[in-house]
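Shipment paperwork, digital attachment
Item: protein structure file
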Amino acid sequence: MASDAVLEVSTCVRLLQLLLPPLLAHPPLSRSLLWLNATPSGRTEEEAAKTLPPEKENGGTPHGARLMQSLINLLFRPGYCVAKLATGELDRFGVDPGAVWAGGLQAEEAKQGKERKFDQNRCDVLYLIMECLSTQLYEEKRACGECNLFAMYASCGETPNIKNMFFSLLNTVVSYNWKGYVSR
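Attachment content:
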């Protein structure tokens, strides 16, 4: 990815970090903009969860699902959050050991290494994913029966790169060095 493109994407991610919380604070507005017709009429949310990504009645994918999918894919975009992959093509529906950020489960050693620019970009994207998964925090009142559609989509087994994200986060936490990473 060219440095101009990286800068543009980083700016968009940071702009979304500022715009999403006020949008999520208004559930009717956020539902109409992000999840309009996410559960087509006649189906319960549980039935819709089995067939995620949810589709609108007119055949399109809701903007909220597209946003979550784009953010997860961005975590494994060569040149933005990961270095160029040795295999060339990323396994989007399995676990690609070359794309996992830290060594451990499913990846014996980290092939991505520690690069500050990638770490900062990952943190920005993960922060935005965290905002999406924490929609209840931005609402004043919430009915107990309502579910978080971002979480439903992210936990769906059909979401591309979700396994790479899970093992990257797990291995990063498990490989944490409590003494610090700065050599003395």
